[in-house]
C-alpha cells in the first residue's frame, strides 16, 4: 500500500514513518523543510532508539522516499496513494488543505476509484474532521459525492512521547530517541474501503472518549509541568516533575480534569487514576531528555477554549467539581515568555496593551468578569511570590 506522510519531524519519523515501514508499506515523507528532505534523501536511513526504564532497543528505518511539499510531483503522489497521515502541528493543517484538495481533484479527474483515507495525527480534538471541513470548502460541490464515497477523514488519538533531539546518539541527525510506550487509536467508522492493517494502530468504535482521555489528561499535565517548570528555570520535563511542589499541582490538576472525564464518560475512577500515575512515571523518564520548550510551545493554541487547559476547567465548572490546580496551571501558562516562541511573545504584547484580564478573555473566550477568570488573575499575580519569576531567557 502507498502512503504519504506530511511532516517528517519527531513523531513523523519516530513513530508514524517507523510504523508504516514496519507494516510493509511504500512510504513517502513530505515536508516544507528542504534541509530535512535533503537529509532524508542523502542518508536514506535513520535509527529510532526506544527507551524505557530498563529497556533500550534500536530500530533501523530505511526504504522510504522524501519530497518537498512544493515539488509539483506531490499532486501525483496524493492522487495515487491509499493513505495519507499528517503530523505537522495542528495550526498548520489549514496550510496543507489546498494542496490536498488539488491532489484529490486530480484523483477525481483520473477517475480513480481507490479509496483514500486521511488521518491527521495531531494533538487536536477531531483533527481529521477539522481538516475535512476545510477541504470540503475548497473542493467544488459537484465533487462532494465523490468525496463522501471515497475519501475517509479518520480521527485518532495518538500518544507516544518523542522529543526534539539536539544531540543525536549517532552522527545521522535524522535519528531519534522515542519512548517505548505507544497508543494510536483510530475511529473505525470513518474509514473508506478496507481498513489497512497497520501495526501499533488500534481500531475503536468509541474514539471520542479516548481523544478527550488523552488530551485532557496527558497533555493537560504535560503543559502544566512545562509552564511551572519554566518559571522555576528547569530545562527538561523530568527535572520539573521531580520537583515535589510542581508534581503535586500537576497530579492534582490531572485528577481534577480526570474527575470531569469520569463524570462525562463514566470511566472507572481507580483505572483512570492509575492511568494518571502511569503518565507521571512517563514524564519522569530521564532517558528522553524532553525539553520544557517543546512541551510549552504555542501557548496561544494551548490556552484556547477547546484545549487541554481551559476545557477541563469549564467542564469542572459545569459539573460543580474542584478546579483550583487547573487554575494554577493556566496562570503559569500566562507567564511563558520565550523569544523563540512567537505565540508567547504575542501573549506578552497583548498583556502590555490590553492588560492581563482582557488578554486572557480574548485568548480563552472566558467571560471577563467570571469567577474563573478572577481566580486565574489572582493566581497570576501571586504566582511570583511562590516561584522565582523568569520573564526572558
Ligand atoms: N512529538 C510528540 O511527542 C508528539 C506526540 C503525539 C502527537 N504529536 C503531534 O504531532 C504533531 C507534530 O509534532 P512533532 O513533535 O513531530 O513536531 P515537529 O516540529 O518535530 O515536526 C513537525 C514537522 O512538520 C513540518 N511542517 C510544518 N508545517 C508543514 C506544512 N505546512 N507542510 C508540511 N510539513 C510541515 C515541519 O517542518 C516539521 O518537520 C503535533 O501536532 C503534535 O502535537 C507529537
Ligand atoms: O505537541 P503539542 O505541542 O500539542 O504538545 C506537546 C506535548 O505535550 C506532546 O507532544 C506530547 O509529547 C505528546 O502528546 C505525547 O503523546
TrEMBL record:
<comment type="similarity">
    <text>Belongs to the mannitol dehydrogenase family.</text>
</comment>
<protein>
    <recommendedName>
        <fullName>Mannitol-1-phosphate 5-dehydrogenase</fullName>
        <ecNumber>1.1.1.17</ecNumber>
    </recommendedName>
</protein>
<dbReference type="GO" id="GO:0019592">
    <property type="term" value="P:mannitol catabolic process"/>
</dbReference>
<dbReference type="InterPro" id="IPR023028">
    <property type="entry name" value="Mannitol_1_phos_5_DH"/>
</dbReference>
<dbReference type="GO" id="GO:0008926">
    <property type="term" value="F:mannitol-1-phosphate 5-dehydrogenase activity"/>
</dbReference>
<dbReference type="InterPro" id="IPR000669">
    <property type="entry name" value="Mannitol_DH"/>
</dbReference>
<dbReference type="InterPro" id="IPR008927">
    <property type="entry name" value="6-PGluconate_DH-like_C_sf"/>
</dbReference>
<dbReference type="GO" id="GO:0005829">
    <property type="term" value="C:cytosol"/>
</dbReference>
<dbReference type="Pfam" id="PF01232">
    <property type="entry name" value="Mannitol_dh"/>
</dbReference>
<comment type="subunit">
    <text>Monomer.</text>
</comment>
<dbReference type="InterPro" id="IPR013131">
    <property type="entry name" value="Mannitol_DH_N"/>
</dbReference>
<feature type="domain" description="Mannitol dehydrogenase N-terminal">
    <location>
        <begin position="1"/>
        <end position="198"/>
    </location>
</feature>
<dbReference type="InterPro" id="IPR036291">
    <property type="entry name" value="NAD(P)-bd_dom_sf"/>
</dbReference>
<feature type="domain" description="Mannitol dehydrogenase C-terminal">
    <location>
        <begin position="206"/>
        <end position="354"/>
    </location>
</feature>
<dbReference type="Pfam" id="PF08125">
    <property type="entry name" value="Mannitol_dh_C"/>
</dbReference>
<keyword id="KW-0520">NAD</keyword>
<dbReference type="InterPro" id="IPR013328">
    <property type="entry name" value="6PGD_dom2"/>
</dbReference>
<keyword id="KW-0560">Oxidoreductase</keyword>
<dbReference type="InterPro" id="IPR013118">
    <property type="entry name" value="Mannitol_DH_C"/>
</dbReference>
